Structures are given as C-alpha cells and as structure tokens.
Amino acid sequence: MSVTSTTTLDSQLTATWGSANTYADVPMVMSGYTSRLWPHDCQPQFWSKYQVWEWLQQVMDMHQIDASSIPFQNFDMDGHQLCSLSYQDFIRAAGSVGPILFHSITELKWSGASESLRGQYHVEIGQMDIKPEIDFSCPFPDVAPGVNLEIYDPTIHPLAPAASPTPSSPDIKRSYSRPHQVKKHSPRGTHLWEFIRDILLNPERNPGLIKWEDRTEGVFRFLKSEAVAQLWGKKKNNSSMTYEKLSRAMRYYYKREILERVDGRRLVYKFGRNARGWRETEK
DNA sequence: GCCTCTTTTCCTGGTT
DNA sequence: CAACCAGGAAAAGAGG
C-alpha cells in the first residue's frame, strides 16, 4: 500500500517523532487553519515525518477535503522521501487527491518554502532550537515488551521540568477497584488516554489532530476525530478503528476518572484526577 | 488454561 | 440527515 517500503514504518515513526521542530505556541489550529501554521522554516526535503503530516493536513484543509479520506499511513515518510515521490506515487498513495498533493509539494520544492500555501511566511526561529532533549517518546512508540510505560510517561515534559524526581507517579496508580494493588498489567504499550495525551503534549508533532481548549484544566478537543482514530488504529494494528469505537473507549475512562465528562460540547474531553502527565506543572 | 484489565465491536436510543 | 454522545453487553487480546 504504502508508497515507500513499509519496512521501517515504525522505526521511522519513532525516529522522526523525536526530532521535529518546535514552533511557538501559536494558536495555529484555531479557526479552520486559516491562520498560518507552517512550522517549517526549511524546505520540504528536510521535513520530519510529522511535518509531512502537517502539510498533508493543511493541504486537505485548504481544499476542504476531509483529511480522513486519505490514508495518512501512506505518507509515513519524511520530507526527503516525500519529495522523491513521483506523480504516480501520489496517485497511488492518495487516489484522487494525489494530484493536488503532488502539485502542492512541487510548488513547495520550487519555492523552497511554503509561500505557495500561505502568502507570507515567518517563523519564530528563536523557538526552533529549544527542542527538549528529553524525549518522552512518540505517541506510538513500539514499546519493547519489557519496557515499563513509566519510562516514557511524561510526568516530565519540556514545559514542566520534572516536578517529580522520581519517575512516574507512585501515588494514585489504579485506585479504582483495587486500592492497594499496584498495576497488575502494563497493557501493550500505551493506553489510549496516554496516546491522546502524548499527541497533545507534542504540538509540533500534532498535525492539527487534537487541541487544548483549556490547557490548565486539561480540556481538549478533537479536531480530526477520524484521523486520530486512524492513528490509534495504526498503533494497535487495527485498520478498522473508527472514532465511534475510540470514543467508546474514551467513555469508559469517565468511571475511572481518567477523564471527566464535558457535557454539551462535542469532541471535547477533560483529563480527570487519575490521568497524569498532562499538566504543565505536575504537582 | 484461567484471570484481570483495557479496548474493541455492536447496538439502541438520545442529542446537536 | 450526519456526526456525536451514553452506556450496556459481550468478546477479543495481552500479560501475568
């Protein structure tokens, strides 16, 4: 399926996931992506995989095409690989959207930047290098079987330099139903809520999928519900994942107080007291 | 093979 | 009408 060899799919993911640029916390994903949101100060050849996805997302938005209508997995590649795709490759990867994408990337290649997409261009270069060396891992780390999720559980993240010297959260664990038992299982890799959280914590790797509504309160909103579901499905190796199903899993979190209900607002969720690692200043 | 736990799948019904 | 939201039920998967 994928235009590139899928051999390094995940390794690639993991690899590029950790090396994206950081752009200022512009309210980018705000209103229909009308605002600027090109985090790339470089040519597409140098984009990371997530910048590629960001570009994808935006081109789709610009053309009013549902982003979930193309398989993002087919663009599981960095800018260099993207730029080497042929017209036919784009068709294969994105069907009828292929030509649009091809046209866009061709223009970008020639202009060397993103003029073709946004008129003018400015990036907070000052912010570009503050990429934290702490790698709290990608939302889709293929965690080695033995690896404990605490390892990449970002109780520490760039904005909140480690409030807790001791990694992870010794406190609450699973207080529901088994008060004194500390974690029986560490399910395959990441839990859904952690996956979501990690996307949120990595805006530079989050191509407009989910957005904070209230950072301090832990309220967030899905912008591309189906795209997130696809991503989750990809991580779980389940191509039939949908937002419908993902949201059911999210609703189970209410009872466990990992999430709090936010009524009346579609696609909006809020982290609950049993969700950790999302705060700017973990207390 | 059994258990626990999380997530998936399906579904009915209500809401925006 | 489409896209969500709420949960119940059952079952799948994974690890212990």
UniProtKB/TrEMBL annotation:
Gene Ontology molecular-function annotations: DNA-binding transcription activator activity, RNA polymerase II-specific; sequence-specific double-stranded DNA binding
SMART domains for this protein: ETS, SAM_PNT
Main location: nucleus
Biased composition (Basic residues): 175-185
GO terms for cellular component: nucleus
Low complexity: compositionally biased ranges: 160-170
Entries under SUPFAM superfamilies matching the protein: SAM/Pointed domain, Winged helix' DNA-binding domain
Keyword terms, alphabetized: DNA-binding, Nucleus, Transcription, Transcription regulation
InterPro entries named in the record: Ets_dom (IPR000418), ETS_fam (IPR046328), Pointed_dom (IPR003118), SAM/pointed_sf (IPR013761), WH-like_DNA-bd_sf (IPR036388), WH_DNA-bd_sf (IPR036390)
Residue ranges, annotated region (Disordered): 160-185
Domain PNT: 27-112
Residue span(s) of domain ETS: 190-272
Localisation per UniProt entry: Nucleus
Pfam family for this entry, one: SAM_PNT
An individual GO BP term: cell differentiation
Matches recorded under PANTHER family: ETS, ETS HOMOLOGOUS FACTOR
Family: Belongs to the ETS family.
The protein's name in its UniProt record: ETS homologous factor
Source species taxonomy: Eukaryota, Metazoa, Chordata, Craniata, Vertebrata
Gene: EHF
